[in-house]
Amino acid sequence: MTRNASSATRVSPRSTLRRRLDQFGIGLAGLCMVHCIATLMIVSALGIGGHFLLEPAIHRVGLVLALVVAAVAIGWGAIRHRRAAPFVTAMTGLSFMGGALAVPHGQDEIVLTLIGVTLVSAGHVINLRAAR
């Protein structure tokens, strides 16, 4: 009896990895937000850094990284807990982020990106809570 009780409270290495991926996804979304806001402030106020901070490759790489992390962490969680909310929330956010790549640099891009990363981050949070 004691053996079963102790094994039920153990955290499997897989769930720890999935939890860390969700946490990484939340951190990545936060870094994206900081990048967007810092870019707006630095380029607007100081007129410097535009050639690097506004580089389209940064945004494409960020979207691919966010997509991979969300697909693994949230997809894995959805299989385990059978809840659609984390998946739907994150995929909506990724769609906004993808839409941001289709508009010229400026306010529209920033608004779409911020909405997107907020939704992706919320999807990771919902996924973490659903796994508990």
Describe this structure in words.
This protein has 132 residues and is mainly α. It has one domain (14-130). The protein has helices at residues 2-9, 13-46, 50-53, 56-81, 85-101, 107-130. Helix 2 (13-46) runs antiparallel to helix 4, helix 2 runs antiparallel to helix 6 (107-130) and helix 4 runs parallel beside helix 6. The radius of gyration is 18 Å and the shape is elongated.
Number of domains: 1
* Rg, Å, rounded: 18 Å
The average pLDDT value, as a whole number, equals 82
Which sheet architecture does the biggest sheet show?
none
- Morphology call: elongated
**Fraction in helix:** over 70%
Which stretches of 5+ consecutive residues score pLDDT under 50?
Answer: 1-8
Helix and strand content put the structural class at mainly alpha
Distance between the termini: 23 Å
| Count of helix runs | 6
What's the quick description here?
By secondary structure, the chain is mostly helical.
